[in-house]
Structure formats: structure tokens, C-alpha cells
Amino acid sequence: MQRLITQEGINPERTSYVGTDGIWSEKWVISQGVGMTSYTMVSDNQSVGVKASGEQSINKPHAETFSLYGSISNSTSQKIHGAVEIVNVPDVADGHSEFTPVMAGPAKLSSISGSTVAPAEQDHDIIGSAELLYRLSPMNLRSAQSAFDPADGTWLTADQITDWSLVKAVAVSLISQEIPPYTTLRLAIPVKDQQIYHHVGKTIYVSSAIFSKGVEDDSGLPTLMIEPASEHSAKLKVVGEYDEQKLDVTFIDDTTGETLKTVTKTGQRGTTTDYTTIADVDDYVAKHYILVSDDTDGKMITFDYDDNVDQHYTVHLKHDTEAVTDSVKKNLVVHYVYADGQAKTGTAADDAQEAITFTRTGTHDLVTDTVEWDAWDQASQTFPAIASPIISGYTTDKTEVSNVSVTADSPETTEETVKYRANEQELTVDFIDDTTLVKRLRRSLRLGQAIPSLITTQLMISRVT
């Protein structure tokens, strides 16, 4: 037994011993005895090895992971039949543990020499085989010996576990097997606490029970139970100091290059924020933005362990747009009038009209409700030529209106005027003296022009003569 104590690093003051006459807890050294001993241990990230009392530092690597240990030691010179150990995962529900870690994977069983006896995934022999079983609820350790039944449906094998964080108890079952004399089996349970940075100063306790099943009544051993926070319960305390971590999420408008907003969060390293970008992105989408990329993928963000560098995340958005078209119509109106000072005045003919259209495309920004236009389809256009109407006896100053060009920015209507002038005609008046004289008076007059008074006077004189 002394070899076991030395090899396992057992502190006899913290070790319980099961004999046929009861459970003993005191300083002891046994060279040979009749019974099993058990102890619980922990490992931390501050030193190598297992111990009855550990301190997990949040300032050292692997702060979130550690291991719990249970053991069965046959301290006798006889084989022990049907041994069982059950270890409950610490839980605030046990009334003593101050936080609740969860299992991080399958347990492992090893011998005193440290060689692997039974990986959690399958059964292996010690003398025959040790079976590792898992339960999704804690075991009542006080009634464990009578209540334990591997076939009752509450105990599962490793291949039946889909989520290790749900496991609350682990059992090593050697019901049909024997533990050789002076042999210790160690059960290692990997656990993790993702919220450990919230648990500085808090402690958990490891509880277990060992008993034997299937032995004769007169040789059976009573249950040895290590209750949480009892003298023999291993404990692990979270220690350390932390600096507040900081992260920010910046929303960038890729269309303008501007920063829309920045969300800043602070918290403890290793913890997860309660913020996601989902609500903010939805709000921007409602304002006609399009999500380009999101470094966070819309998930809650976990603070890292670097006290010197803040975490930065970026969400890129762009403006939603739609294609639009525009057109503008330009008109040419030609007026036809009589020239000033003519016998006829006013409109010589009805107005003539021509029209042309400019078109362009553009991009409507749905965020700003503005349009960015492309160039017009043509820089300028020329109206078709319009021939001036022919009016008998009149001559126009323009036989046609042509080569009138406009741009999209020109006035809506361009006006041109064509003037009509009466053609010149010759008036001949003959004064005839029936006896001796013929006198001819010639004048050139325009159509519609009044006969000059000189001619009418001469006509009157002729008549008097």
C-alpha cells in the first residue's frame, strides 16, 4: 500500500478507506489491508500533475479547460470483485460548487502506471474489461450502490453521446471483473468552462462514490462516498485578474466610403457579447442598403485573450439602385408673316412645326433618392428642313428654314420667322388728246400698293382739259 501512496501522490490525511468494518478517514499507512480506498483530484493550468486542491488561472493558457479525477485503489492483497465508481460533474445544483463546468469529451481510465486501460470509446480489459458509462443527470451518490443498474436505460456508452456538455455523471463499472491486489485505477474527466472569466474567486468540488456489486453478503464493502465540499472532496478555484477587453464593429458605406456607425463593446476575455449585427443590418436593408460582407457573420462575438490589441470587425454595405430613363422634347416653330410696310399685314400662312427628342439613361440611388445621369444619346440634333409656302405675288426672305440645331439644354421651343414681300408690278397710264397729243405715264407699283396721288391728279387735269 505504501507503494500506491508514494506512486500516486496520495495524501493519507485527505483519503478515505473502505474496510469491512466501516469507512475510515485519518492519517494512516497500510502495508496490507482489506478494502478499497478512493480519492478525487483535479489538475489546473499552473502546475503539472494532479492534486487535491487546484487553482485555475485565467491569466495562463488553456484557462477554459481542466480535468477532474476519480480513483479506485485496491489496497488489499486480495482481488476485489464488482467494483464501481461514479463521479458527478460539479454543478451549482450540488449545493456547494459555485459554477458549472461541462464535459469536453470522453473520459479515460488508466492504471497506476499511467498506461491506458480503457479509452472512453470502447471497453478494454483490466483483467477482463472496464466499462465506462455516462449519464445525462447527476447520480444520487447516497443510494448509488442499490440504484446503479447499467441496463436501466439511464446509462449510455460513448458512442451514444452526441453532446458531451450534457453529461452529468460518469461511471467506471467492473461488475463482472476483478481489481488485482494493490492496484489503482484512475478516471480522468475532461471539462471546460467557457464562462470561466466570470467565475474568478469561485470554487467547484468533485464528488464520487465507490462500492462493490455482485459479491457475497459477508464480504461486501460499504459505499464510500465523497460528498461535495467534504474534507475528502477535491476542489478547484478560479484565480487571476483580467483587463477589460474591447471590440468594435464598424459599418462602412462602400458607395460613399463613409462610416455609417461604430458599435463598441467591452467585456471579459473569453466571454461572448450579447450583440449581433443582425438588427443593424436589417435596419440598413430597410433603408435600401445591400449587405456586401459581415466579418461577424451575424453571430455573437467572443472576446479574445489579447489585452494589448482590440478586436475590430467590419460590415460593408452599398446603396441599392435601379435603372431609369429620361427624355426631353425640343420644338421648332416657323412663323410666316407679311413684311412690314406692305399693303397686307399679319400672318401669311399657318405656323409650321417640327420636333425632335433627346433620351438618356441613369441610375437612381434608392438610399439618397438621387439620380446620376449618363450623357444624352446625342450631343446635338438638327431639325428637318421646312420649305416655306408659296404665296402668289409674294417673295420670301427664306425659301426654307434649315440647319437649325439644338442640344438637350436648349430652350424647349426654337422660333424662326419667314417674311413675305409683294412682288413689284408696272402701272402704265396713257393720256390721249384725240386731236394732237398722246402722253404716256409709267410707274412701278407693288401688288396691293395704292396709286400715287400724282397720277390721279394728272388724270383729273386731263379730264378737265
Distance between the termini: 180 Å
The helix fraction, in percent, is: under 10%
Beta-strand content bin = 35-45%
* Named CATH architecture of the largest domain: Sandwich
Number of helices: 4
Rg, rounded, reads 55 Å
- Main sheet: strands, sense, barrel: 9 strands, antiparallel
The count of β-strands is 33
Protein name: MucBP domain-containing protein
Pfam families: Muc_B2, MucBP_2
Domain Mub B2-like: 331-423
Organism: Limosilactobacillus reuteri
Structure, explained:
- With 465 residues, the protein is mostly beta strands.
- It has 4 domains: 238 residues, ntegrin, alpha v. Chain A, domain 4 (Immunoglobulin-like); 73 residues, Roll (Ubiquitin-like (UB roll)), CATH 3.10.20; 101 residues, Immunoglobulin-like, CATH 2.60.40.4300; 41 residues, no CATH class.
- It is 7% helix and 45% strand.
- It contains 4 helices and 33 strands.
- The strands form 8 sheets. Strands 1, 2, 3, 4, 6, 8, 9, 10 and 14 form a 9-stranded antiparallel β-sheet that branches. Strands 12-11-13-7-16-17 form a 6-stranded antiparallel β-sheet, with no helix packed on it.
- It is rod-shaped, with a radius of gyration of 55 Å.
- It starts with a helix and ends with a helix.
- The C terminus is likely disordered.
